[in-house]
Amino acid sequence: MLPRFRSNAVRKVKGKGVNFPFRYVRKKSRVACCPLCGVKLAVRRQGAKSKRIPSRAFGGVLCAKCSFDVLKLAGRVMGGRMKLEDVDMERRKFVKQMVK
Ligand SMILES: [Zn+2]
Q1: Is 3 exposed, middle or buried (0-12, 13-18, 19+ CB in 10 A)?
Q2: Which of 59, 92, 65 minimizes the C-alpha distance to 76?
Q3: Nearest-angstrom CA–CA distance, 13 and 16
Q4: How far apart are the CA of 3 and the centre of ligand 1, in A?
Q5: Structure pTM?
Q6: Bridge partners, residue 71, by sequence
Q7: Which of 32, 49, 66, 85 allows an S-S link to 62, with CB 3.0 to 4.6 Å?
Q8: What is the pLDDT of residues 20-62, one digit of tens each?
């Protein structure tokens, strides 16, 4: 395999014909978005990982507003004031991570 195809930015795609069973395609870069509300996350491109991504819970995954909501719900579930089944389906998997 050529060095340029060893990168993680490249993926294998099925090619056409007998002579070309597969080809390599560069992955498209995409902007990180919050899975709950779709807001673009403010992620820096350069610097150490600790500078690129906020170090709070769900940093780099959820936006600040949604992570606050999830932590609030997790607190309610842990306190016994709410059941995990009462949390809506979108947020449940994130709440589950915090409760565990
Ligand atoms: Zn959000």
Answers
A1: exposed
A2: 92
A3: 10
A4: 38
A5: 0.67
A6: none
A7: 66
A8: 889 999 988 888 899 999 999 987 878 888 888 888 999 889 9
| Torsion over CA: 3, 8, 11, 12 (sign) | positive
The Å distance, Cα 25 to ligand 1 centre, comes to: 31
CA–centroid distance, residue 40 to ligand 1 (Å): 8
pLDDT in the model for residue 71:
95
What average pLDDT does this structure show over 2-26?
Answer: 90
- Using CA atoms, how far apart are residues 39 and 96, in angstroms rounded to an integer? 22
Six-digit token string for 38: 């779709």
Place of tokens 């560069």: 26
**How far apart, in whole angstroms, are the C-alpha atoms of residue 49 and residue 45?**
9
Residue 34 has a pLDDT of 95
Detail the DSSP E strand segments found in 8-85. 10-14, 22-26
Residues with CB under 5 A from ligand 1 (ion): 34, 36-37, 63, 66
Q: Report the sign of the C-alpha dihedral through residues 71, 77, 80, 82, in that order.
A: positive
